């Protein structure tokens, strides 16, 4: 466990994430860092070459930690710059879903999340790569990826528009074909969706991988196999009650490497950002490759 006091921070702030107004945040950061005598810089994302620019800034200046202020896409972009370094990632959840921060028990209230700056522990978590591109949270192919794509193309953000798109697409969605080879088990057939899970639940709180552990050196491939449309409500119920593993329509493969053949060229996303990887996707685990800032365990409060 590392509880080192940080004195120089970089905040990477996404001004558009989650449809959340962030005008007051800079004042809040100034006042908090002033109180704690912390020097800091703020990098505001533009949506263009942010990862490259954040990496450049990290090469030019030394920071004790980098806080991503935004949703899972912002967290993924900042994490990509920090994997395999000694600099930890902090998260101030201000996106539409904030899935990784929920899986890490980071407070969803902005002020409480900011309190982590002065009081936290640092732990290592696994990350995964898909054809070399990092994922920290959840990726998938199929129905949810289609919803993510349509959501990202739409003009409104926030959880309401995501749920609306999902409802509109559900009745007409047809399962797609996949071939999956892993170091533990293989699969070939159709699936409604195929999730590659480092973590547990989507930002919507739908828990696709209830048994997943973020630092066990493994990831899971969670399949929802074809099901009658009428079974959808039961599957949804299990997703929201942490019991999807008990559905007869699901299958979970726990492994350390996999090759996924996306035979119908279905859409996919990585940590909530649409991605295009071609038919063959190589997935590998990078055990304990990212340091993250977490709340103190309750017994140490
Ligand atoms: N200034 C900007 N203008 C337009 N788009 C931006 C800007 N800064 C970042 N982006 C885009 O924002 C997306 C990342 O958003 P992020 O995932 O953090 O929030 P979200 O989608 O609202 O939340 P979540 O992923 O939790 O659902 C990326 O696609 C990135 O390119």
TrEMBL record:
Q: Which residues form the DAGKc domain?
A: 4-134
Citing just one GO molecular function, the answer is:
kinase activity
Q: Which GO terms describe its cellular component?
A: plasma membrane
Tell me the keywords, alphabetical order.
ATP-binding, Kinase, Nucleotide-binding, Transferase
What protein name applies here?
Answer: DAGKc domain-containing protein
